[in-house]
Amino acid sequence: MFSALGRLYNLQTLSMETEHVGPRSRRDMGEGHQESMEIEHVGPRPRRDMGEDHQESKEKHSKTSEVVEEVDDNPIEEVRLTVPITDDPDLPCLTFRTWLIGISSCIILAFLNQFFGYRQNPLSLGSVSVQIVALPIGRFLAATLPTKQIRIPMTKWSFSLNPGPFNLKEHVLIIIMASAGSGGVYAVGIITIVKAFYRKQLNPTAAFLLCHTTQLLGYGWAGIFRKYLVDSPYMWWPSNLVQVSLFRALHEKDKRPRGGLSRLQFFLAVLIASFSYYIIPGYLFPGITSLSFVCWIWKDSVTAQQIGSGLKGLGIGSIAFDWNTAVSFLGSPLASPGFTILNVLFGFFLISYVLVPASYWTNSFDSKKFPLFSSHLFDTTGKTYNLSRILDEETFGFNQVGYDAYSKVHLSIFFLFSYCLSFAALSATISHVAFFHGGSIWKSWKQTRTMAHDQPPDVHARLMRRYEQVPQWWFHTILVLMIALSLVACEGFNKQLQLPWWGLLLALGMALFFTLPIAILTSTTNQAPGLNVITEMVIGYLYPGRPLANVAFKTYGYISMVQAVSFLGDFKLGHYMKIPPKSMFHAQLAGTVVATTVYFGTAQWLLNTIPHICDTDNLPEGSPWTCPGDEVFYNASIIWGVVGPQRMFGNLGLYLFSNWFFLIGAIAPAIVWFLTKKFPGNKFISAINIPVIFTATSMMPPARAINYITWGIWGVFFNIYIYKKHKAWWARHNYILSAGLDAGIAFMATIAYFALQMRDINGITWWGLDYDDHCPLAACPTAPGIVKKGCPVF
Q1: In terms of DSSP H, where are the helices of 610-704?
Q2: What is the pTM of this model?
Q3: Which of 376, 371, 374 has its CA nearest to residue 387?
Q4: Per-residue pLDDT tens digits for 603-658
Q5: Residues with Cβ within 8 Å of residue 717, at least 6 apart in sequence
Q6: What whole-number distance in Å separates Cα of residue 693 and Cα of residue 682?
Q7: DSSP state of 609
Q8: pLDDT tens profile 3-17
Q9: Per the record's keyword annotation, is Transmembrane included, yes or no (predicted)?
């Protein structure tokens, strides 16, 4: 198993010397590439299963040399098995149909996601549902709209409402716009906490600028790095392959193999099965999302329930029969490479079954006073931390007297190590990229600057050369304009955001610095650390006592980087689907602006029309407008902006040791890099990815052990066992299986929510109806004398 993974991982770290695709450079790619190319020819079926267009392209080159055949494809095997190497440059892209369906989908998704995001049970609608629905709508418009050319008055421009059959490229651009509507606007959280929790008014213009600048700054960072992160064949963005497979299944004519199903038939079968099944975990039997048998056997033992609970403990013996449990926090396990899955599972094992048990059962940091697994903050008596005692109600600043008379901030042991590993992951990402990708980055950067692109690195880049590229000054213009508007938002309007100009520039500098390493990790492993913790920590040290400055700094530093990585991933999808870059840029920009405006407008409408929204103490009985996600955002602004990191992880806090994890994260990749050089043939060492290991549990909490266990089972089975033993089936069905499961859940969840749950029709009341694994003692403290309702006192 590790042999295959080692070959896969070696492809991630090959030198960019292969950019000049000549026969000699291909032979110089080393044994890893040669072995990978040999894996491809495992039998006659895998290449035939890639679709008629791909097969016809291969047949045209059957008489050429083996070296030339290698040049005509991508060095990453998953890409070779999934992405077609053909293109029709005559297909229209930004048509009237594209704009109509794309913008409409963007508006609908943005409105619904923001509307239901404030409710007790928020509903999140993704673009996969639009991907399915857009196809029949597009074909209906192609069959009914007139084909006559329409001339725009006072210009030479004209267009047709119906330029021909609805095509694949239109479909891709529609989804690019729709995905902007499903992605959310992080800055809306600032508007919400100011209005609903701090009881103040944020200037509407300042709020509008805050939302749009944080969403659009990422274009600047993406433009700077797109040559390396999009054109390079080794930056392959695994999650895009699910989309590519679904688009091909929906649009390509595929012959049904004897005794089997075509890809479209397989997708529809999976969609129907997933749709039908999800009524069980989504409505009738939610308890099936975490079955913790150890708790039921030892129902009176706190220790057994701490070990066995999949929701509040370590999850040993827990299992879930629900695809949504696997994908809800970590994304599709079928879209992650095998070596990533093993690294994530190792990281999960390290914290869950080594660090946490060893620390908890030795009572390190008084950890037995608190639950084993919790994201809450606690005082020294083991009770939930009372933030009102340390907050000045007039200035929303820090109350030193109240703090001195109360307690330092305590964390559960699992939450503490989650922070520690997030520190390590950040420095490990930089160190890993420097050691494993530094040389290729420098070489590619020099080649980009000297325009040395006479021979693009793979077939996809060569096919994209026929299209006019997006001028670099477009990105630079957006970047400069957004920085200027950001300064206006922060320094103007009576400085309501509290963030000074130097803080804004520091946040943008951090976003720029981390975009490249985090995008590299995302594009090769489908996993990446976030900047939310480090940004909160930096501004908390430099500018304490100002909660709005803290969340504004985090949003500018963290979200602009996230947006950049998202834009780059979309550009790579367009690269695979052969979308003209300018069309992709226009679709992305339009979708982002429209979605941000709709999110902002919907939030303002709800905040100003629903009495006591988010105020659980004053809301009417049974009101759904409780804003659970925004309450977490508010608490973070208090902890990091008011209490400050110095009183948690600094010399005034209890967890000063956690800063050593920055050093651990920086050193660990260097050790692995040295071992790969010392033992170049060792496949086990080659498969180790330190940033992924440290990032593994970054979603815990709110993710639970059962999420990781379920994700790991699916991932190991399909992307290691099936990938190795049944590669032909994997190449044909794996990514389509993932898309079908997602689509079925999306449709059923939407229907069940609107038709039943929104009307408080929740079925027969029984123990399986609870989203709980019935392990009540798992959250109990075990220190002597600590009293908690429902728990035994030791």
Answers
A1: 628-638, 660-678, 683-686, 690-695
A2: 0.79
A3: 376
A4: 999 999 988 898 888 888 767 788 877 887 887 888 888 888 998 898 888 999 99
A5: none
A6: 19
A7: H
A8: 333 433 333 333 333
A9: yes
